[in-house]
Amino acid sequence: MSVSVITSTDAQQHEAPGEVAERLEEGEDSQTPQPPRRGVLPASGARKSSARSGQPEEGESAEPEGFKTTRHAPGNGAIELVDVSLSQHKKAIFGPVSIKTAPGSLLVIDGPVGSGRTCLLLTIGGRMKPTTGSGAVSGFDLRAQMKQIRRHVALGSFPGLNDLDPALSVNQHVAEQILLHKFGLSVGRARVRETLDTLNQYVKAAEPLARDAHAVITGESANCDKEFLPRLRGNQLVADLTPLEKFTLSTLLSLLDEPDVLLVDDVDELRAVDDRARAWALLIGLRTAGRERPLTIVASCEHDGLDPTALADLSQVAGGDHLIYDLPGCRLEVGVTSPAAPTAL
Predict the structure, then answer these.
(1) Rounded distance, CA 320 to CA 326, Å?
(2) How many CB atoms lie within 10 A of CB 209?
(3) What angle do CA 240, 243, 249 make, to 5 degrees?
(4) What is the per-residue pLDDT across 274-284, written as a single tens digit (0 to 9) for each?
(5) CATH number of the domain that 158 lies in?
(6) Number of domains composing the chain
(7) What is the pTM of this model?
């Protein structure tokens, strides 16, 4: 069978980088009416009612017979997979995999190159349809409601899939993301600055918890940098950003649609040990930063990319479930505590 990958939630048309740059330059003086403002980021209630209702849309079947997973209210970030596998041309890509996480968990998919980590993440995100098995993501059926899942699950950094354009600036990437999400027909500099400020507030709110998580991961306290986590600066070109800054930009752009689940592939793409530790610390800190309820994060790495012995301590520091799933199917370590309290911006 063929495997299809869907990289856009609604198959939106992508504008060329030059067109986005031109619209950014011209948008400040545009007279195009803007939709009612409810803050810089879109309210979660702005999603289509069909996605919130959990009812299958036209062309999607109802819940399949034999579906055994626990049903959750749509939009809560819970993940449950039961014997999910993916194959192509009779060759197994991954699975069968069975995973169950509570809302607001950190799930680490651990495995070597070629173990199917990326395909498993894309399956959880509704971008690939599994060959066998059943499950639910954020309360929606894994096989029958992929479109709804895509509305609630965002892709963060995915090397080779959604790489940043080195020729564009941070401001232009933010403007492009606003346009692609249809938050308006045009975008001006003021709105880009406002959005950028809000994203940096997420980082600031995540920083205290990120410092504690970094100390657990590395075994030593972080130095008292004024900015422990990188901030986004709009006039910088992506080509001039450090690897950690690029990771941060990709991660924060994915939060513009206020997802219930965030997927991040191959954290080990960051080669410097401290960069990887700070990337994990950023993800852990963002789970509760500026949110009414914790964000579920699923991230992948190579074997031993995150020390399993640190998970229990991370759970004590950050709260919530911290799980490592070792492909092809052995859970290494589980840390479970009560969910962490949300951090206000």
Answers:
(1) 20
(2) 22
(3) 80
(4) 899 899 999 98
(5) 3.40.50.300
(6) 1
(7) 0.74
